[in-house]
Structure formats: structure tokens, C-alpha cells
Amino acid sequence: MLSNLLNFVESIVRHQVPLMTMIVLVLMSVPPLYLPHYGGIAINLSLIGLFYWSVYKPELIHPFTAFLVGLFYDFLAGAPTGMFALIFVVSRGLLGIYSRRLVTTNFLILWLGFFLFVFGTSFAGWLASSLWYGALSDPVSIIFNSILTVALFPFGAALLIWISRKVYRVS
Fold it and tell me: Is the Cβ–Cβ distance between 83 and 125 less than 8 Å?
């Protein structure tokens, strides 16, 4: 009886690892630093988590999970409520379509896919915030932010691969 309960709890915890890692990445993306112009160089690490888990464990990232993580990011980053939630849900849907192709490719193709993903989500966020505020945001900071996010992808992916191997016992 006790072993069945422990197996059930272990299964639930294993299924929540992608959500928990994405929440940690959101918290790392929006540190409480009150530095001038920090938003221009802040890296959205949650995109690394969303991309990785949507490609390698798509069954564990439900669109509602992507919505909750995006909403959490909206509240912490001060973005218009629902902006990143919608972007994360649409991104999760598109990544679900291409996950079978991306999972079998080499790392450079995966990195190229992440590059396209980041610039697509950044452009969507830039466009949505420009429409929301009624003025064009600075595209240079968005491009710089996207470049930094893409440059950190190998390190984030290595960490998530390590977590995935430990949690899901993948060789």
C-alpha cells in the first residue's frame, strides 16, 4: 500500500518537473534588479525551458501549463497581462507540430530552430507591446535581448538535459 502511494507521488512529481523548471527559469529571467535600462538586456530564460520541454517532452507541457507560465512571466515582468501567456500558448502549439522533426535533428539544427523561435516570440512581443502602448518600442533592445537568449541556449539546454536524464532516467 505504501509503495503504491510512493509510486503515485513520484509519478506526479516527475510530471511536474517541466513546470517547476520553467517557473525557476521565469524567476531567473526577471530578477528584482532595479537598474536603469536593465529590461533592454534581460534574457528571457523561460523561452529555453518552453522550447526544450515542448520538443523533448511535449506530453508534459500542456497548453494550459504554457498559459500559466506565460501569465506568471507577465506579472513579474510588468508586461501587459496575457501578452506572454498568449505568446507561450501559441508557441507551444507550433512547437508541438514540429517537435517530432526537431527531436531527431542534430544540435545545430535544433539551435537554428531555437533562433527562429526566439526571434518569432520576440517580434510578437514587440508588436503586441507596441500596439498596447500605442508607440513603437525600441527594436534594438529586443534584438540584443534575443541574441543573448540564443547565445545562452547551449548552456540552458545542457542543464535541462542533465535534469531530464536524472529525473526520467534517460541514457
Answer: yes
